[in-house]
Amino acid sequence: QLQLVESGGGLVQPGGSLRLSCAASGFTLDYYAIGWFRQAPGKEREGVSCISTSGGSTNYADSVKGRFTISRDNAKNTVYLQMNSLKPEDTAVYYCAATVYYCSGYPSGMNYWGKGTLVTVSS
After folding, report:
1. What was the pLDDT predicted at 54?
2. Residues ≥6 apart with Cβ < 8 Å to 16
3. Which of 17, 63, 83, 108 would you call most buried, defined as having the most Cβ atoms within 10 angstroms of its Cβ?
4. Residues 94, 100, 105, 111: what is their CA dihedral angle, to the nearest 10 degrees?
5. Beta bridge mates, 25
6. Exposed, middle or buried by CB within 10 Å (0-12, 13-18, 19+), for 44?
7. Which are the contacts of 50, defined by CB distance < 8 A and separation ≥ 6?
8. Distances (CA, A) of 104 to 35, 59, 81
9. What is the DSSP string of the chain?
10. Model pLDDT for residues 29-84, shown as the tens digit of each residue
11. Can you say whether the dihedral through the CA atoms of 8, 1, 95, 65 is positive or negative?
């Protein structure tokens, strides 16, 4: 019953923008910190961004800092990742994940995972 569903992925040109959504069902996100992770072909899954339960604390990987913004709307039970100035190296499957603890930046710290949405940045 605990599910996270990502949406908003697709094909975008370099320099373009996308907004990813992570919607929860079966539980409320109010008490969970939510992280975004990505995995490119042949690479390990890496942390992209994370937001605290209240939204008062956020963190970002150095590779996306200044370009990506994470936010949450607890009333809609949804977390967003606004991605601007996209680069080809941002191409990956993006996953959202939830934890009742805190944002560690590592996949092992998360308790629940979505199935991912593919983002392709190409001309």
Report:
1. 82
2. 86, 121
3. 83
4. -50
5. 3
6. exposed
7. 33, 34, 35, 36, 58, 59, 70, 103, 105
8. 9, 10, 18
9. --EEEEE--EEE-TT--EEEEEEEESS-GGG-EEEEEEE-TTS--EEEEEE-SSSS-EEE-TTTTTTEEEEEEGGGTEEEEEE-S--GGG-EEEEEEEESS---SSGGG-SEE---EEEEE--
10. 888 999 999 999 999 999 999 999 888 899 999 999 999 999 999 899 999 999 99
11. positive
Instruction: Give the angle subtended at the CA of 1 by the CAs of 57 and 51, to the nearest 5°.
Output: 5
Nearest to 47 by CA among 89, 104, 91, 111: 104
